Each structure stands twice: as structure tokens, then as C-alpha cells.
């Protein structure tokens, strides 16, 4: 210090609230932040420290924010595509089983009681065709039996249904994949 110079009072360095990052107007024990109302001298939690550090980095790098948003959009798009492809694969499996049932119905005048009867005649179905894309079996039900049995002792049915419960595993709601067959003739 030079002679004759007037000493200036020392100003504390500018500080920020460790919790919310707001500038501190006053600093000291017992003083609370006007923004978050927490004491300045109370150490922030680890989660808050990570949050503040992440926000600081994001402010410093808009490109990082842009890349993060792009990645999130791409993941969401991929999930939508996956769900759509699972429904398409299941619909394809139902179509393959449907063809066998239509052939059986055309030759016999009705649908079989179960898929095993059709498999006895045409050979076993591939295992991947018998299930949907979510790993559950495609359900087959036959209804409205014709009176009497065929020469082979089988009962034929006027209607049948193939059903996958869809991604939510609850049959009977809007996301089910269903095919309903109706026999073309009046009986055997």
C-alpha cells in the first residue's frame, strides 16, 4: 500500500447458492438463499451436486443437448418400429395357420375341433407359427358344431377363431390380433 492511499474495505468474493446456483446477496451463517430458502452453508446433497454439474455442462455444450435429444428421439422411434414389427410378425403367423384351416374347411366342409386334427392331416405346424411375437401361444377355438361326425369320427365346426392377446397380454381388448373363420357350406 502506498502512503496516502485510502484503504478500501475487502469485499467477499461473489458466491452462489450451492443448492440452486442463485447469486448470494449476503453470505454468512444462518443466511438463507432468497430463491430456494435453504441455508447457504448447508452442503448440498450428492444428487443436487450431480444435477448442478450436469446443468452446467449442458449450458456449456448445446451440441451435447442436441445429440441427447436426437438419441432420445431415435430410441423412441425404434421402440415404435419394434412394436409394429411384432404385430406384423404375429399377423403373418395367424395368416399361415389360417391358410391351413381354410384348406381343411374346403376339403371337409367345416373347421376342426383343434389344430392337432389339422396337423394330423397336413403335418405339424412350425413352432414359431404357433406363437405370437410376445412368446405366447396363438389361441384356436372352434364353435357351432355340425350335428353328427364325419367318416373319420371328427366333429366339424361352422366357425373358428385364431387370437393373439397382443402386447398387453389381455384378450378381448383393442390390441388383439384376431381372425374369425366361417365355413362356406352348410355342413359335411
Q: What structural keywords apply?
A:
188 residues, alpha+beta, Glycoprotein, Type 4 Pilin, three-stranded antiparallel sheet, 3 helices, 3 strands, 37% helix
Q: Mind sketching the topology for me?
A:
Elements: H1 46-60, H2 62-108, H3 115-122, E1 139-145, E2 157-164, E3 177-182
Antiparallel strand pairs: 1-2, 2-3
Kindly describe this structure.
The protein has 188 residues and is an alpha+beta fold. The chain has a domain at 89-182: Glycoprotein, Type 4 Pilin. Helices cover 37% and strands 11% of the residues. The protein contains 3 helices and 3 strands. It has helices at residues 46-60, 62-108, 115-122; strands at residues 139-145, 157-164, 177-182. A 3-stranded antiparallel β-sheet has the order 1-2-3, with helices on one face. The longest helix has 47 residues, at 62-108. 15% of the residues are buried. The mean pLDDT is 76.
Q: In a few lines, what is going on in this structure?
A:
Helices cover about 35% and strands about 10% of the residues.
Strand and helix order: HHHEEE
- Number of continuous helical runs: 3
Quick check: average pLDDT? 76
CATH class descriptor of the domain at 89-182: Alpha Beta
Report the portion of residues in β strands: 5-15%
Strand order of the largest sheet: 1-2-3
Classify the secondary structure makeup into a structural class: alpha+beta
CATH architecture of the domain at 89-182: 2-Layer Sandwich
CATH topology of the domain at 89-182: Glycoprotein, Type 4 Pilin
Radius of gyration: 36 Å
